[in-house]
Amino acid sequence: MTLCLLREISLADDVLVDERDTSAPVPPRTRLLRNTPVRGTLLSDICSPRLVSSTYFSQTSAIVGCNGVFHVASPVPSSSVPNPEVELIEPAVKGTLNVLKACLEAKVKRVIVVSSGAAVGLNPRWPKGQIMDETCWSDKEYCRTTNNWYCLSKTEAESEALEFAKRTGLDVVTVCPNLIWGPLLQSNVNSSSLVLIKRLKEGYESLENRLRMIVDVRDVAEALLLAYEKAEAEGRYICTAHLIRERDLFDKLKSLYPNYNYPKNFTEGREDVTMSSEKLQRLGWSFRPLEETLIDSIESYKKAGILD
Ligand SMILES: NC(=O)c1ccc[n+]([C@@H]2O[C@H](COP(=O)([O-])OP(=O)(O)OC[C@H]3O[C@@H](n4cnc5c(N)ncnc54)[C@H](OP(=O)(O)O)[C@@H]3O)[C@@H](O)[C@H]2O)c1
Question: Quick one: pLDDT at residue 75?
Fold first, then answer.
């Protein structure tokens, strides 16, 4: 997502761009500060190789002079993690607070924190069929008892961020996207793209007909920029575009790309929650059609040889 956001930002000719070369002998943020004039905005995951531990002061120096910071970085596991407290919760929560403390110290005007629908929707007591909005929070205890560690990490990090904002007066806006697809710009495949790739490659015999909430990475980048630029933006914003059941999604995929190995059966299962992005749309956000997301995603996977 960072690369997409960078592309949107650079198209808007607004702020700095860095290629995040982690193999460089000096950390990317150092090169960034040496070589690039900081014109306004900084992305925490290009400027901080690791969020926790000793990066607090370096983040502070990286952030000095910035009007805004986009905090995108957070661990996103693609499989189960042996020690979730250390591998997920701590980096997400401490990392976010480190960035926020540095922003407060550097008098940054606004910080955009990328949270997730995972911090909104996991609540077993939510009335079935009722649409969720920004007042909804995932139930932390339920996340813990059901081992939904990623949901817990995002819920803890976002709630701590908003608490920090209330306590200190720092202007923090959070954006909560759901499942993000769209063209890959980076060489590694992130977890959410894997969801689509597996649907094309694995030839599932049967799949649960779940409801998916999908949003294009380019529309998420647009939402982050709106949340940054619009003076009236405040609090949380759910960022979701398309509500679609697996069966309908596969019908769409089949009509666009008939030759993949699609599931033969669907089972009916749980009642899924639905969320609304009305608040974000009132800020001026719109999103592209799902077909465009599917085609651009799949074409980018083909180009990268991922579907061979
Ligand atoms: N993709 C989705 O469907 C989705 C949906 C909702 C929200 N989000 C949120 O969007 C953000 C970006 O996710 P993504 O999908 O683009 O996944 P991603 O490609 O895995 O990006 C996660 C980024 O966070 C960085 N990171 C992880 N742990 C870190 C640490 N301890 N210190 C510094 N950087 C760290 C990673 O850097 P390294 O690669 O160097 O580890 C990577 O650049 C995350 O906050 C995620 O929770 C994603």
Answer: 84
Burial (CB count <10 Å: 0-12, 13-18, 19+), residue 166: exposed
Concerning whether 154 is annotated as a catalytic residue, the answer is yes
- Compute the distance between CA of residue 274 and CA of residue 6 in angstroms, rounded to an integer: 30
Give the pLDDT of residue 60: 59
The best mutation among 52, 74, 175 to test binding of ligand 1, ranked by most ligand atoms within 8 Å of the C-beta, falls on 74
Instruction: Find out whether 143 and 128 touch, Cβ atoms under 8 Å.
Output: no
105 CA distance to ligand 1 middle (Å) = 25
Give the position, in ligand 1's atom list, of the atom nearest the Cα of 188: 19
Please report the atom of ligand 1 found closest to the CA of residue 154.
47
Average pLDDT by stretches of 10, the chain with 308 residues: 59 34 33 34 42 45 72 82 89 86 86 95 93 98 96 97 98 97 85 93 90 94 89 97 96 95 87 94 98 97 92
Report the alpha-carbon distance of residue 48 to residue 68 in Å, rounded: 16
- Choosing from 94, 101, 128, 154, which is the catalytic residue? 154
Question: Which atom of ligand 1 lies at the shortest distance from residue 1's CA?
Answer: 16
> CA angle 226-121-292, nearest 5°?
50
Which residue minimizes the CA distance to atom 25 of ligand 1?
73
Which CATH number among 3.30.565.10, 3.20.20.80, 3.40.50.720, 3.90.1010.10 corresponds to the domain 2-180+216-241+273-287? 3.40.50.720
Within 10 angstroms of residue 52's Cβ, the number of other Cβ atoms is: 16
